[in-house]
Amino acid sequence: xxxxxxxxxxxxxxxxxxxxxxxxxxxxxxxxxxxxxxxxxxxxxxxxxxxxxxxxxxxxxxxxxxxxxxxxxxxxxxxxxxxxxxxxxxxxxxxxxxxxxxxxxxxxxxxxxxxxxxxxxxxxxxxxxxxxxxxxxxxxxxxxxxxxxxxxxxxxxxxxxxxxxxxxxxxxxxxxxxxxxxxxxxxxxxxxxxxxxxxxxxxxxxxxxxxxxxxxxxxxxxxxxxxxxxxxxxxxxxxxxxxxxxxxxxxxxxxxxxxxxxxxxxxxxxxxxxxxxxxxxxxxxxxxxxxxxxxxxxxxxxxxxxxxxxxxxxxxxxxxxxxxxxxxxxxxxxxxxxxxxxxxxxxxxxxxxxxxxxxxxxxxxxxxxxxxxxxxxxxxxxxxxxxxxxxxxxxxxxxxxxxxxxxxxxxxxxxxxxxxxxxxxxxxxxxxxxxxxxxxxxxxxxxxxxxxxxxxxxxxxxxxxxxxxxxxxxxxxxxxxxxxxxxxxxxxxxxxxxxxxxxxxxxxxxxxxxxxxxxx
Length: 520
Known about the structure:
Helices cover 51% and strands 8% of the residues. By secondary structure, it is an alpha/beta fold. Strand 6 and strand 7 (434-439) form a beta hairpin. Helix 3 packs antiparallel against helix 4 (76-82) and helix 12 (245-256) runs antiparallel to helix 13.
C-alpha cells in the first residue's frame, strides 16, 4: 500500500520539526530538567506539527535510553509509539469522542499505572469539539492528573477552550510555517524521491499550502500522481485551479499597448473557461504588486512571486512605464475591490477596469503639463553683448510691464491664494515706475488686506520688474447717483417697479427721497 508523503516524511524527533524551533527547545529543556508540565495545550493551524510534536514528546519521555531530549526511534517503546501500537500512548479524536461518557471512561483508564512505559501520554486531538459537560468532567482530572499521566490537547481553535481549562495547562502556540521553508522541504523530498520538478511548480504548491506543511505534501502527492513522476507547471496549475501567469502578462501587454479588442477577447476567454473572476481579480492585484517590485527594486529575485522564466517578458512590457504610473495603475485596480466582490456581473466590471487602465498611458500629469506650457513660451533673444550688472538702486526692467504684471498675479495666486482673488478683480495700472492697484468699492475689507500686505506686494514688484516701484493701493469710489427729473424717470422705468405695478394694478404717483438717505 502506498504511504503518503505526509506520513512517510513525518517528523520523528525534535530536530525534524519544521518552523517550530522555540517550541522544540522549550520541550527539550523541560525533559532535561524533569519539569514537563502534566497538562499541555498545542494550538495552531492545521498541518504545522501539533500531533507530531505530541508523539515525539511521548517517545522522548518513554524512550528506553532516556528520558532523553531526542528519542532514539530504535527501541521497542519508540517503535510502538511511532507505529501507533502502544497501549500507553493514546490518541483520541475530540470530535467523535466529545461526550461526557467518553471523558468518564478516560478518567477511569488514567487512574491505573501504564502497562509498560514510564508515563501514559493521552493526546486529545481537536479538543475544542468537546461538549460543556465533557469539559466539566475533564476539569478535575486536568487540574490534578495522576502522576504517571500527561495530557496533551491539540486544537485549531484555541479560543473555544474554556478559560478554566486554559488556566490549568501550559500553552504552546504553533506558528504558520514560512513559505520559503515549505518550498525547501518539498525540494528535498523530490530529490529523495528522484522526482523532477521546477522551482515555479514548488513555489505554486508552497504558496497554495498557506503555511501548512501537511497540505503542501498532499498537493505534491497529487501532482506526482497526475504527471507520472515528472511534475509539470501546467499540471500544478490545473490541480490548484489557479490562473496561469501568462494570462496576466497578456492582459497587461494589451493594456499598455492600448489593444482594447484584445482586452475584451481575453476576458471572454476567461469566462468561457469558467474562471472565477473574483479570484482572478485578487490574483491580478498580486501580479501588479510583483511587477512594481521588479520595476522599482534592483535584484528583487527573492522579493516577488513570479516565474523567473517570465521576468524578461514582463520587463519588456514595462520598460517605458514609470514607477509612479505603475502605482497609479495599482491604485486604480485596488479601488474596485469592493465593487468586484459585491457585483452580480464581475465580467462587466473587469472589462471596465482593463479598458480604463488602457487609457492611462495617454494621460499627462499636471506637473508635466505645466512644464510643457512653460517650455512652449518663446524665449527672448539673448543680447549680443551682455550688459553690465546693474546696481540695486537702478536696475533695468527684466520684462515689459504687461509680462511681469502677469507673473506677479501668478506668484500671488501661488503664495497667497486669498489675496489672488482680490487682485484678479482689481485694476492694475503701471505708469513709469509707479504701480497703482485699484480695488473695487464694495471690497473694502479686501482693500484693507491689500494694504496690510503692501510690503509683500512692493517687494514682489521690485523683484519682478528689476527696479524700484512706487506702489499705491486705492479704493475705487462709486459714482454718485443722479437726482432730479432724469433720476425719477429712470426709477419709473425700472423693470422691478414696472413688474410690481402690473401685479398690483397700480401706478406711480410720486417719487420721494427717504429721510436720512444720503444717496437718494
